[in-house]
UniProtKB/TrEMBL annotation:
It comes from Clostridium lentum. This is Cyclodeaminase/cyclohydrolase family protein. InterPro entries: Cyclodeamin/CycHdrlase, Formintransfe-cycloase-like_sf. Gene3D superfamilies: Formiminotetrahydrofolate cyclodeaminase monomer, up-and-down helical bundle. GO terms for molecular function: hydrolase activity. The keyword Hydrolase applies. The keyword Nuclease does not apply. Residues 7-191 form the Cyclodeaminase/cyclohydrolase domain. Transmembrane segments: none annotated. Keywords: Hydrolase. It holds the Pfam family FTCD_C.
Length: 212
């Protein structure tokens, strides 16, 4: 069964149990989907309502575009839950390969390397795509229904949590790859994404706090 087909209680039960999956990677993807879904609620209470009619034609067009992108983002975030599970299981399968002879050891090492690269790149892609999504949240908060502004704020907070969580999963896989020259920029890239996410989240939150 795919994660998206599970009940909330079943997912939490599996997450808290002794199963190898779901874990932190799938949870990061789920949180990202929750962030975009919450932001989509802002659009749902705005589009085709009185406030929407009062927007300029340019902002009406932008809002419809951002809402469509939000739905696509949510859909993609859910697929990342499955990608993470598949990547993790592929890594585990590599550890089960025979390594008695030198040839077997080399084959196992090579397969493990590429499985780990994939397991690292999946959360990195999630983090990068999520970082771009802040622009969508900013627009919803600025032009959407003001009664749902706090929901947009929560979406930003969740998005930051998803990004930080995804980065942790990038780095845990990077530990097995850091001896390879081609991946030396990964920590710097992760730090850059995390810092940008925190700044964007704080920008959104500070505006709300200043209004209280």
């Amino acid at each position: 069964m795919e994660f998206k087909e599970m009940t909330i209680s079943k997912f939490i039960e599996d997450l808290s149990g002794d199963k190898s999956s779901p874990g932190g990677g799938s949870t990061a993807a789920l949180v990202s989907a929750l962030a975009s879904s919450l932001n989509d609620m802002v659009y749902s209470f705005t589009v085709d309502k009185k406030l929407f009619q009062n927007l300029t034609e340019e902002n009406k067009s932008k809002m419809l575009k951002f809402q469509a992108e939000t739905k696509e983002f949510t859909k993609n975030a859910l697929t990342f839950m499955e990608k993470d599970r598949a990547d993790f299981m592929a890594v585990m399968d590599c550890y089960r390969l025979s390594n008695g002879t030198e040839e077997e050891k080399n084959i196992r090492k090579e397969k493990l390397k590429y499985a780990t690269i994939k397991a690292m790149n999946t959360p990195l892609e999630l983090a990068e795509k999520s970082l771009v999504y802040y622009d969508n949240i900013k627009f919803a908060i600025t032009f959407g229904n003001k009664n749902l502004k706090s929901d947009g704020i929560v979406a930003a907070i969740l998005l930051n949590g998803a990004i930080e969580s995804a980065i942790i999963n990038v780095l845990i896989n990077y530990k097995s790859l850091k001896s390879y020259e081609e991946f030396k920029n990964i920590p710097e890239r992760c730090n850059e994404i995390s810092m940008k996410s925190r700044v964007l989240k704080e920008e959104i939150c500070s505006g709300f706090y200043n209004e209280i």
